[in-house]
Design brief:
With 171 residues, this protein is α/β, with parallel strands linked by helices. The chain has one domain: Glutaredoxin (3-Layer(aba) Sandwich). It is 47% helix and 21% strand. It has a seven-stranded mixed β-sheet, sandwiched between helices. The N and C termini lie far apart (60 Å).
Length: 171
């Protein structure tokens, strides 16, 4: 009887490890291989970002911390863009592309903004807004940030610099 319990316990642990690994692998695979809709209504292919350090910003028009972060994200995109860094804002639960375009018209965003769907938020397991995914040049998730960040620019800049320096050293 004890042997069966040990075997059953080992099986449960193996399933737990396998299922969490499968979930993480699914998100990681999707980190760079995703599609969304541009504000002009065309298909945006995330895989074109491969080779860049990328910050994916899942946000919504009704989320005050998301909107408050836009100037910081624009600064990061502007300051680090020439070194191979991109910000992609993914608006979700925010209406059609034309609605999002109208919303950000006066926000002075300098980075790419696209519209994602519920499937995309589920694939990335977004649990709150804003949610950021920092991707390395291979398109793998380096770090995830959820919610409002007190020292956003400094924290993101430090992590982005870490990834950019890895890229610089490979060149």
């Amino acid at each position: 009887m004890t042997g069966r319990l040990v075997l059953l316990g080992a099986l449960i642990m193996a399933l737990a490890v396998f299922s969490s690994r499968s979930s993480a692998e699914a998100v990681e695979k999707l980190a760079i291989d995703f599609e969304a809709t541009t504000l002009e209504g065309r298909v945006f292919d995330g895989s074109r970002l491969k080779g860049h350090v990328v910050l994916l910003d899942f946000w919504a028009v009704w989320c005050p911390p998301c909107i408050a972060a836009m100037p910081t994200l624009s600064r990061l995109d502007h300051d680090l863009g020439e070194r191979g860094f991109d910000v992609v804002g993914i608006a979700v639960y925010s209406g059609e592309p034309k609605d999002v375009a109208q919303f950000i018209e006066d926000k002075e965003t300098t980075y790419t903004v696209v519209v994602g769907d519920e499937d995309l938020t589920e694939r990335f397991e977004v649990i709150g807004f804003p949610t950021y995914f920092l991707l390395d040049v291979d398109g793998s998730i380096y770090k995830m940030y959820v919610g409002e960040m007190k020292n956003m620019k400094e924290e993101l800049e430090q992590d982005i610099e870490t990834l950019l320096s890895r890229t610089d050293s490979k060149r």
